[in-house]
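Colleagues,

For the teaching module next term, I've prepared a clean inverse folding example: a structure given as tokens, and then the sequence designed for it. I'd like students to try predicting residues themselves before seeing the answer, so please don't circulate the second half yet.
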């Protein structure tokens, strides 16, 4: 067998083993029982959060700073006060814009108390059962079981990674925190700075430092122009030609289909459907779905990969293709990274095709591509004033966007690392006092900022309950190595076709057929490093 076939067999055997092949009948039945209990408890944790109907009443004065459209979206009580529901879309906006410190503190504390004791007991039981499950398969704890088949390989490697990133951010985060404390003192006097103030004062600093009007910026991102710019970048970088198929059979008139060809050989590489606009009854996430995997059939012919890009863009009032927010431009670039990842895969087995790769690796190509949204050269390719598309956004706006990307990012990233460490520790050790652990980590990671009194973040942390248990670190992991790739290979020559083709052949083509660390080391010419990630934040941070 060739190396890919051997790797395929190895993966199959591992699948069988992790489904109980090597266990006795009694232990296999025990594993199935544990799995069913874990699934039920995970769903109960999420259901408790979804069913929580906590809301707080505030007067209009107590909500000073929030825009009229936010207030209009709130229900009112009989006494005329506004009802603020403890749902993320209400809470995050309030914590970022409300000028009243007392209101921010009440909301942040109440939001952090949701499902308090009930979800805490669910999480404790979940962790206990996960450890039992992992030990049936010979692992010392659940974290080692969860990470074993991922790029990180061991829980100890994850701890080392998170601690290194957190330590590298300390100086920058300290400068950020000092500036935020000083600003709060100017605006609110001697009241101590708390974690509930973070989003509000970061926003205030941004307003002082940047002349960025994101509402006005939309006028420079007509959908069709952004798409043509993305196609141009992907063509020049990866040698791909996109051709829209006329009169294709689709499920809605908004949907269009593209063929993707190799630019030099004209070989058909794949197809993708583009379903951009929000509508009633449509799946409401933005993502890429693999409709058909690329693979070799038994007769040696290649099955063509097919992808679907789903987005939730709004049309303008006339029902025409509209203008994109900058965040939607970045999101579109990210998802096109997944489309290219799926189409350019050349693995022989569907098991390794497209997006069926290591979870620690799957986001890296898309995160690499996001960088083109912050470089002046590429921003001008994808932008143009909607009434005169020959006028791209100005150079000073491009520079501001690049600075804004990482400005005041250290504290917010350390907050994310706090949750990742918490997730990793509870899944690595027995009998952890979850509440005390979070208090300890909060003080340590967040430079002495205490956790809010009465809050219990472990009771409202769904990623640790289902979907990312013992793997919350993965997003930061991917961002770190994406930064290394972009800085080392692309930053100085954004449309270097030779480097782009190397990325296509060495990173995208193998898919899951090779170990991710081998793929990245082959492309970079060395093992990947955290240094570029740290340096990029230091360059544009405080």
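(Answer key — instructors only)
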């Amino acid at each position: 067998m060739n190396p890919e076939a051997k790797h395929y067999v190895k993966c199959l055997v591992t699948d069988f083993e992790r489904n109980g092949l090597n266990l006795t009948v009694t232990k296999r039945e025990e594993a199935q029982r544990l799995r069913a209990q874990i699934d039920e408890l995970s769903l109960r944790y999420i259901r408790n959060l979804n069913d929580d109907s906590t809301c707080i009443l505030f007067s209009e004065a107590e909500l000073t700073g929030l825009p009229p459209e936010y207030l209009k979206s709130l229900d009112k009580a009989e006494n005329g006060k506004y009802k603020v529901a403890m749902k993320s879309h209400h809470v995050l906006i309030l914590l970022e814009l409300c000028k009243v410190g007392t209101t921010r503190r009440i909301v942040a504390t109440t939001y952090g108390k949701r499902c308090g004791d009930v979800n805490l007991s669910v999480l404790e039981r979940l962790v206990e059962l996960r450890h039992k499950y992992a030990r049936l398969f010979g692992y010392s704890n659940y974290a080692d079981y969860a990470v074993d088949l991922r790029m990180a390989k061991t829980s100890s490697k994850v701890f080392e990674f998170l601690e290194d990133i957190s330590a590298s951010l300390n100086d920058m985060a300290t400068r950020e925190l000092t500036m935020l404390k000083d600003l709060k003192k100017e605006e609110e006097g001697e009241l101590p700075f708390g974690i509930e103030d973070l989003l509000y004062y970061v926003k205030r600093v941004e307003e002082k430092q940047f002349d960025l009007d994101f509402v006005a910026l939309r006028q420079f991102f007509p959908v069709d122009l952004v798409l043509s710019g993305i196609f141009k970048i992907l063509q020049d970088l990866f040698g791909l030609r996109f051709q829209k198929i006329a009169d294709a059979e689709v499920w809605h008139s908004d949907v269009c289909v593209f063929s993707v060809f190799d630019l030099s050989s004209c070989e058909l590489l794949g197809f993708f459907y583009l379903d951009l606009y929000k509508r009633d009854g449509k799946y409401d996430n933005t993502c890429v779905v693999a409709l058909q995997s690329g693979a070799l059939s038994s007769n040696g012919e290649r099955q063509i990969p097919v992808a679907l890009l789903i987005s939730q863009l709004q049309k303008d009032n006339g029902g025409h293709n509209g203008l994109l927010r900058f965040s939607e431009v970045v999101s579109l670039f990210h998802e096109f990274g997944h489309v290219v990842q799926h189409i350019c895969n050349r693995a022989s087995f569907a098991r390794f095709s497209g997006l069926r790769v290591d979870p620690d690796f799957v986001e890296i190509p898309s995160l690499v591509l996001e960088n083109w949204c912050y470089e002046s050269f590429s921003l001008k390719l994808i932008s143009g004033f909607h009434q005169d598309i020959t006028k791209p956004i100005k150079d000073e706006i491009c520079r501001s966007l690049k600075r804004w990307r990482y400005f005041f990012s250290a504290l917010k990233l350390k907050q994310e690392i706090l949750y990742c460490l918490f997730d990793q520790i509870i899944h690595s050790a027995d009998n952890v006092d979850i509440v005390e652990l979070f208090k300890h980590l909060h003080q340590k990671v967040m430079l002495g900022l205490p956790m809010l009194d009465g809050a219990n973040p472990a009771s409202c942390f769904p990623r640790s309950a289902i979907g990312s248990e013992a793997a919350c670190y993965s997003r930061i992991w991917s961002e770190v190595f994406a930064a290394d790739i972009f800085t080392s290979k692309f930053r100085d020559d954004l449309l270097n076709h030779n480097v782009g083709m190397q990325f296509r052949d060495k990173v995208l083509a193998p898919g899951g057929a090779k170990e991710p660390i081998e793929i990245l080391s082959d492309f970079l010419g060395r093992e990947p490093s955290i240094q570029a990630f740290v340096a990029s934040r230091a360059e544009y941070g405080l």
